[in-house]
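Subject: Protein entry, chain in single-letter code together with its fold tokens

Area: Proteins and the way their chains fold up in space.

Attached in line: The record itself begins immediately under this heading.
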Amino acid sequence: MSATTSSPFASVIEKHIPNLKTYEELYKHFHRNPEISTIEHDTSARIATELKTLNEKHGSPIEIKTNIGKTGLIGIHRNGPGPTILLRADIDGLPIQEKTGLDYASTKTQLDTHLDNVEKPTMHACGHDFHITCLLASIETLLGCTDSWSGTLIYLFQPAEERGCGARMMIDDGLYDLSRHGCPEPDLCLGQHVFPFRAGTVHTRAGSTMSAADSYRITIHGRGGHGSMPHYCVDPVVIASHVVVRLQTLVSREVPPDETAVVTVGSLKAGDTVNVIADVAILQVNIRSISQTWRRVLLDGLKRIVNAECEAGRSPKPAEFEKLNEFPLCYNDEEVTKKVQKTFDSHFGSEHMPDMKPVLGSEDFPLLGSSIGKPYMFWFWGGVDPEEWDRRVKEETLNELPVNHSPFFAPCINPTLRTGVEAMVVGALGFVQKDTN
């Protein structure tokens, strides 16, 4: 039990939280069977089955809507007058080969029919299997304590977070169109993410919490020819190399030292053999920022630098910019965050960390609120075994922990599962709990 004795939610959770042994097995099922973004058909079907089972146990209070944005689904739980709160979990895995050695490790491969029709190893390397399982267990807890709260809860299972398109796919498919899916607009949205922090802890922050991310594929044109005759050619590799180096000055010389930003050139490809100057060089660039002001500076600087280096290198035609994906800045609403932090303080006590630093990872979760002008709040909870965490603190080896997207990423099941369930339940009840005065 992670709650403090002063928590107004402790008795509700103790009475109604389900036997988590069942959910441990469900978690292992999802971990063994990850699916790549936009093609999470089996995952979505299993979630729908779990929701139907919960309905059978509790008299069918949840209205289930499937196939929203292809593989997204929601459960609408109306329980009297009050605010409408959306609780979100993402459901997709990653094209990574798992190397954890767990007895429930994924050995699955999947044909990525959405992207390139290539068979890929697949892994839940970002904890979305935990997100699914914790939300399902939270739903069962909330179903058991309906006399303690009043309002409407929307349980949303979102596809394709890893590619930054799942929230938009659901919204564009009429998520909030009552005539289409029957889903009311929420008053606010809540979400959470497991992270390489000490298990049992919950971490929050008001304001800028996760970075915006903008990714581009940039094609730089040259004039190819024999490696022995560079004076007859325009070498796009040289131009691209200058671009790579010059882009680093965006952070070091154009963004203030007390701001946070990252510019990464993830790949540079040109040519196929040693003695040929290529026609084109292709860069893939990722830019992360935690303010809209400096996001604009970085994006403007990207195009300025690429175009200037192409001109300096006598490129025969302008560079081409292809937007690969875009993640919004995650800016937690101040008032909503204060309320969540107050409830987390009362429930988790010293295990709640309300002053976490911004995370340079990115999420499309904010779109679920910002697209309709509603507030949202996103928090993190730990998944590193406490004994391992404490040992690494002493050894000063925390930087060697496997992190999200690592083939070795493996959050411990306990107490990670229970903490994730309690955080989601407490976060929701903080807005819909009945006044007991």
